[in-house]
Amino acid sequence: MFAKNNRIVAASIAAIVLATSAPQSFAATATGSLTISANVVAACTVVGSAIAFGAYTQAVVNQTGGITVLCTNGT
Fold it and tell me: How many domains in the chain?
């Protein structure tokens, strides 16, 4: 019984010694430089909305629609 208790006490002491002697780590922030490059391709996109005139008759029918042009800068 005493031998088992001695082993438990010895193991506990060893665990405490190892836990307190281990180096501590702390969270930190570091800054640095990172080189990044990108090539932007010159491009344009033209999008038109649908225009519905309905059934064809001889009457004048006015409708509206939209056209959107999206281009990269410099084009």
Answer: 1
